[in-house]
Amino acid sequence: MKSFIMILLTFSIDGSVGLKPLLIEPKAKVEQDVFSCPKSCVCQYAAFEKLPIVRWVKHYKAIGGNKDDYSKLTKLATCLLQPNGETQKLLDSLPSDLQALILLYTGGNQENKLSVNASDFGRLQQLTSLEFRGPGATMVIDEPMDFLQHANFEQIQLHASDTLQRPKFAKFPSEDYDYKPPSELLSYNNKYPLQFINSSAEIITYEQHIQRLKRTRMPCFYGWSRLEVLRIHNCDLNELHWQMFDGLTHLRHLSLEGNNIREIPPFAFSGAFQLKSISLAHNSLERLHYFGLAGLLQLETLNLSDNQLDQLSELSFPPLPKLLMADLQGNPLKHILPATFWVMNATRELYIGSDKEALNLRTWNFYGQFDSLHKLRTLKLGNVTTEALEHGVFMGLHNLECLTLRGTIKSLQFDVFTGLNMLRELDLSHCMIRELSMDALVGVKQLQLLNLSYNNLTNVPPGLLDDQLELKEVQLQGNQLTFLPLQFFNLPRVRVVRLDQNPWQCTCQMSSWVAHLTNVMRGSMKEICVKGNDNTLSCRNVTTYKIDKTLAPRCANYNGRSVYYVLRRQINCGAIKIIQPSYQSPGLPHWRKVQLQGINLRPMNRNQQNISHKKQANSLLFVTGQDKVLSKSQPSSLNIFNNI
Ligand SMILES: *[C@@H]1O[C@H](CO)[C@@H](O)[C@H](O)[C@H]1NC(C)=O
Ligand SMILES: *[C@@H]1O[C@H](CO)[C@@H](O)[C@H](O)[C@H]1NC(C)=O
Ligand SMILES: *[C@@H]1O[C@H](CO)[C@@H](O)[C@H](O)[C@H]1NC(C)=O
Ligand SMILES: *[C@@H]1O[C@H](CO)[C@@H](O)[C@H](O)[C@H]1NC(C)=O
Ligand SMILES: *[C@@H]1O[C@H](CO)[C@@H](O)[C@H](O)[C@H]1NC(C)=O
Ligand SMILES: *[C@@H]1O[C@H](CO)[C@@H](O)[C@H](O)[C@H]1NC(C)=O
Ligand SMILES: *[C@@H]1O[C@H](CO)[C@@H](O)[C@H](O)[C@H]1NC(C)=O
Ligand SMILES: *[C@@H]1O[C@H](CO)[C@@H](O)[C@H](O)[C@H]1NC(C)=O
Ligand SMILES: *[C@@H]1O[C@H](CO)[C@@H](O)[C@H](O)[C@H]1NC(C)=O
Question: Any signal peptide, and if so, which residues (predicted)?
């Protein structure tokens, strides 16, 4: 009874939005009476976008959902099924023009099983969305629900009846399929262990095959010809078969999470060739053969997270020419074999790594592990475990913009990111990094965010950031740093330098530190508009930054007081020294620059360049100059940092 009330409440809140346009007076009757409704149901008009379907399928429109229907009002009934109730009667008493139905079965236990036949819904020919949830309930598919566009089944059993029509045997899809991965083409099979030797179907007659499917009562959605979204979560659907989704030519989104599926049989989805997204997250897949996902030429997102895949290779994926995102997290992958992703040359986002197994990144002789991912923008690798991340591991990622690594990486070697010409965000936080090569970032020139927080760094090599002229944010909080190289703050565009949670040994060298860079956090975006000469408004979104005194770096040798406090009050450093930033020969390794500096005693000075005042605002000279002026004329404005 308790749950009944809760559901009532939820829907009357939800429904009021969709209801408004229909009511003549604002304080009209409750929505149950809007149309005739059986006792155990709540009926209402709801905007389509309020239906669960839109909630489950993020970016429903993007996967091909009907845009016009989005705000259309839909006749929705939410019904509680009773253990001994007469479900058939209930369904018969629903209005025949119902468009969306949610069935909840809550009384389920060993004794109280409930079974509903698909044919029982036959009267509701206008039903486009069906949700059926509840442990202990069974849906027997005895005829196709050819009216449904969206179906969601959660925690129920799905069975086919013996009498269900199955697709007529045309021919096994493999006959048309001529893709061969490189190793099969060039037959260096024995170089890599094949994972799925028994890939082709066993040879049995079609009749035998149908008999077998009937015996297993494996559900089949053959004939659900309008289906666009099918979601079967936690329904014990532990086997798949190509016949199951055959002919679902309108299907765009298929989610089969939490079903204990162990294998994707050959051509499992090829009959639903318009699919744009598939999720098999939270299953028990142990291997993947390219026949499994064959034929999905429209697929844009593939979620295989939280399975048991322990090896992937170039035999794992068929061509997926439109694939934009692949989530492989939570699989116990130890290596990434070369050419694994060679079919993903259009993919933008890739996620790998698990807490089950450490991921070892390495270089391979003739084909890199990320080769062919030419369009990849975002790569996230978890639990990367390696002594030293070497030059070449990220070879081929020419368009990568965001790279996130987590794990145990003791050191980053020289040139490790070379070739990542478009890299904007590099997040290496929580990687236990102890050592960075001073040339680790050589070749990376577009970097805006460098996150090295929560590592085990004891020093930052001088010259590490020499080429980072675009860098806006450096995160070094949570390390074991005691000092920084002298010219560290010498970054033309930097806005945030996080240094807190380090055991700083404070000395006068820290006079060049800048409180309004260290004690600051990135805030939200803000739209700023300016009127042009012709009175037109031009707007752009800018990042805001907010001061946060709790972020002040602290001196381990002065009782944890803020660096700025110690410098002003506890150490007498004399006048603030202005360090001349030198900008020369970007792109050279640091040792070469040091060498050049020895020879060339005329470094180009920022003062001599014709830089607008605004642009200069972040430069060290401007900053330190400003500091001096302020500290003389308006001491109060700097005092915000004094008492931290
Ligand atoms: C479902 O259909 C079967 C066979 O057609 C029938 O025996 C059974 O009673 C039906 N169940 C319900 C709940 O209608
Ligand atoms: C392939 O089939 C054979 C015989 O049916 C079996 O012994 C073997 O374990 C199978 N291999 C795989 C990888 O499933
Ligand atoms: C993949 O599915 C899991 C489980 O639903 C979800 O948590 C995860 O966010 C999905 N991955 C992506 C990249 O959307
Ligand atoms: C991906 O590779 C295939 C085959 O090599 C090629 O036909 C296709 O144009 C490539 N796509 C992109 C986006 O580079
Ligand atoms: C990384 O993998 C190991 C197994 O090799 C596991 O014990 C550890 O918990 C994982 N670490 C994380 C952070 O997930
Ligand atoms: C840097 O990494 C830390 C730890 O993972 C995270 O909390 C923080 O948000 C990251 N900073 C930025 C700016 O992304
Ligand atoms: C590395 O740093 C983490 C916190 O960032 C700390 O818990 C750990 O003890 C450190 N390990 C070593 C070996 O210093
Ligand atoms: C700024 O961001 C807002 C919200 O993300 C967006 O609606 C707006 O179009 C953006 N404006 C510009 C000029 O990009
Ligand atoms: C500096 O730049 C301004 C415009 O940005 C230009 O008018 C001026 O001539 C430049 N001065 C020199 C010395 O180049």
Answer: 1-18
